[in-house]
Amino acid sequence: MRRAAILLSLAATTWSAQTLAYRPFDGTDAAVADPGEIEIELAPAGYLRDGAARSLIAPAARFNYGVAPGWEAVLEGQAAHALSTAAGRSSLEGNAASLKHVLRDGSLQDSPGPSVATEFGLLLPGINDEAGLGGSLAGIVSQRWEWVTVHVNLAGAVSRQQHGDVFVGTIIEGPQRWTVRPVAELFHEREFGRQRTSSALAGAIWQLRDTLSIDAAIRGARVNARSLGEIRLGMTFGFGLR
């Protein structure tokens, strides 16, 4: 446990993505790491176009550690590097620390019916990015069938700038037994008094083995009156600390 805490603390000072996250999505699933297991969701490099600004996202990371049955601790964030003058300077952004808990074992835990989970935590200050603290609370429902898996996310937050925020999203995955499965995500987010975001993502997850997968996706969004485009490439891998 102490080794895990030290590892996560050191990682958090170096890497930094956003609350909720299951590669390559903005939302997440109703599952957690097993006790004593660590799962790392890592994007070594990605590309973001936000209006006139161009940025390299390198890296983005999320660290999940199973602290008890049905519980995991999460640290996340991303580093953004300007590729255009409109993007400003390099920053650490989207930093967050949270706890995720499975409220009901379901199809993701090889039990009947939907899996249900909650995630709650702190939105932490960035470096050369938003200052201040915020908080978030999310509910997640997942259901896996033979040909499709669906995850529904509903989250509320108080942003670092003390604005209310609501996130509603749906993830759809192809058959779990396929080595390479197609995936998609739709979400809408509103930060009251600031911005609205409508987003669509399409991609694929290549499951190399139970503890290792590679993902790739493209995302397009509308943020208020400007367009956003993103390329995401990454991997998820896990191992035991005991």
Description of the molecule:
The protein has one domain: Beta Barrel (Porin). Helix content is 5%, strand content 62%. The protein has one helix at 2-14, and strands at residues 37-50, 53-68, 71-82, 91-104, 115-123, 134-144, 149-158, 164-173, 180-191, 195-209, 212-223, 226-240. A twelve-stranded antiparallel β-barrel has the order 1-2-3-4-5-6-7-8-9-10-11-12. The longest helix is centred in the first third of the chain and has 13 residues, at 2-14. The protein is globular and about 50 Å long.
Give a brief rundown of this model.
By secondary structure, the protein is mainly beta. The chain contains 1 helix and 12 strands, in the order αββββββββββββ. The chain has a 12-stranded antiparallel barrel.
SSE layout and pairing:
Layout: H1 2-14, E1 37-50, E2 53-68, E3 71-82, E4 91-104, E5 115-123, E6 134-144, E7 149-158, E8 164-173, E9 180-191, E10 195-209, E11 212-223, E12 226-240
Antiparallel strand pairs: 1-2, 1-12, 2-3, 3-4, 4-5, 5-6, 6-7, 7-8, 8-9, 9-10, 10-11, 11-12
Roughly what fraction of the amino acids lie in strands? over 45%
Q: Walk across the major sheet and give the strand order.
A: 1-2-3-4-5-6-7-8-9-10-11-12
Distance between the termini: 9 Å
Q: Share of helix among residues?
A: under 10%
Q: What is the chain-wise order of helices and strands? A: HEEEEEEEEEEEE
The number of helical segments is 1
The class by helix and strand makeup works out as mainly beta
Could you say which overall geometry the principal axes of the C-alpha atoms support? Answer: globular
Low-confidence stretches: 1-19
Oligomer: single chain
CATH A-level architecture: Beta Barrel
| Count of discrete structural domains | 1
Please identify the top-level CATH class: Mainly Beta
CATH topology assignment: Porin
**Secondary structure: number of strands:** 12
